[in-house]
Amino acid sequence: MLQKFYPEMIVDRVQDIDLEVLRNRNIKGLILDIDNTLVPNHVKDADENAVKWIERVKSSGFKTCIVSNASRKRVVRFNERLKIFALHRASKPGTAAFKKALRLMELKENETAVIGDQIFTDIYGGNKLGAFTILVKPIDSKTEFIFVRLKRIFEKVVLKSYYKNIKRTNLK
Ligand SMILES: [Mg+2]
């Protein structure tokens, strides 16, 4: 029942994603969340960590597209240094913006990974799309709004069930 919320991969930070593993799974493009995935919520510009990682991803041959629920202003400013495809007010977990990202990157859903810090927006939406989903730990969860904090409580329930299932699968 909770399977639709399970990510395919969990990492601490985007920098920990093994790009070789993605390549071996025929992943050619990455759909990226901004807030608490690439930078903390309060950081307006792409910082060195984000810029360097995106450069590495691009030079490894992957296409990229930001898909964020944040405002146009937030997304445009963040993307100033990166200059990659970027979609704002995405209404994740709805899949319309994800589908637009696929069109921009000229890729199919099974050639794409959705990367984000929230199970009920990034991962659920990415799973609905049929993409490979990667959950990162929120960079800074202390500054999150009350609504997100509430969602984190339910995320813990999903993760507990996820790890229980993984254990069971590994024992088989
Ligand atoms: Mg986020």
UniProtKB/TrEMBL annotation:
**InterPro entries assigned:** HAD-like_sf (IPR036412), HAD-SF_hydro_IA (IPR006439), HAD-SF_hydro_IIIA (IPR006549), HAD_sf (IPR023214), PGP_Pase (IPR027706), PGPP1/Gep4 (IPR010021)
Residues annotated as transmembrane: none
User: Is Protein biosynthesis found in the keyword set?
Assistant: no
Q: Name one GO cellular component term.
A: cytoplasm
Q: Which UniProt keywords apply?
A: Hydrolase
**From which residue to which does the signal peptide run?**
none
Q: Which Pfam families match?
A: PGP_phosphatase
Give the protein's recorded name. Answer: HAD family hydrolase
Q: What is the lineage of its organism?
A: Bacteria, Bacillati, Bacillota, Clostridia, Eubacteriales
